[in-house]
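Researcher: Next sequence.
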Amino acid sequence: MRRLLAVSWEMPPMYGPRATQVSRTLEHLGELGWESTVVCLAPRRGGPHWPDGRDPAPLGNVRRVGVPSREESLPVRAAFRLVPSLRRWPDSERLWVAPAARAAIREASAQPPLGFVTFAQPWSDHLVGLRVRHSTSLPWVAHFSDPWTDSPYLRVNGSQRRAASRMEAEVIRQADAIVFVNGQTADLVMRKFPASWRRKAHVVPHGFDRRRLPPAAPREPGPLRLVYTGRFYRGIRTPLPLLRALADLDRAQPLGARLAVQFIGPQVQEFEAAARELGVGGIVSFAPRRPIEDVLAAAARADVLLVIDAPSAGPSPFLPSKLVDYLMFRKPILGLTPVEGASADLLRSLACPVVAPDDVDAIGETVRVLLDRASRGELHVSADFDRVAESFDIHRTTERFHGILVRTFAPGG
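Model: Next structure:
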């Protein structure tokens, strides 16, 4: 077996999207001959990062080394609430960097790996990587799930942005390989660096795991069901244009018996009042973060799965893991996403509708068309859906990642 050292702050029992993607990739690397040790947060049972306290399932050929962090302590959480800017150097997980780096260096000394990989976000994972690289000189693969300083979600002051830019540049300079989940993100991030660094960049998309599919069940009678899984960011990525479009449709022809929309994820419930004010509270429901099994079950019951991205003045570099996970359900997907970008490209290849996320009229018309297709029994995926989706199967994506690890860790690689 080849030994791999990994750093990922988020791993099960945490059940955010990064925990899901990293754990399934490491588990499938085991099938390709890798034995992984992953340094991750040791969350407090019943605390903010492990609220249900349930033990995670074991992962084949993956050993977790949990490292506690002061970020979970009440004084630190209070300080972050009082002075939110403290979270942005580069993130609240910065407090975990030093103990995590010490743990990773100990593991590398006790059982030397061929190399190591850091999975961001949070970006502090890459800061751990800088310390491990300095101490061990091991080959390093840095995995970027999203843009760092180029992200529209990065809300920082000038000093914080300059600091983040220095951190990002140092990671890109020192890592032997950089992995992005789509070409748009790779181009966006690497365009500001020397051309010689661009040769380090590779693209491996997120992967879905069909083994996580709930058992198939016949559709229950009722209205057309749209389901969204994921978080919102107030003022950036919100469901408000969709809610306004639904309100317009409902005024023209009541939707109560024809449509039900469900939002599941962190911070979605803060839009419940807006839905009531717009008069669509009866057709829209909001549920907080749920265990991954519950989220998958809700997606399996959907007729149409929903992606909502932030508006963008130019092409969007984001290809969220939830969109990739949606593929295994073989259901139509409605993409409220910039009409140019990574998500739009994938959705068009699937022959799924793409609508600008802030175009209320176009959103309403697209929902009306979906309702009409459903009433005629014509709501199904395209003939090309399975062919396109197959390249995102976790076995395919992990094979590509495996190839990058082998080449990067090879002597002289």
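Model: The domain at 2-207+393-409 is CATH 3.40.50.2000 (Rossmann fold). The mean pLDDT is 91.
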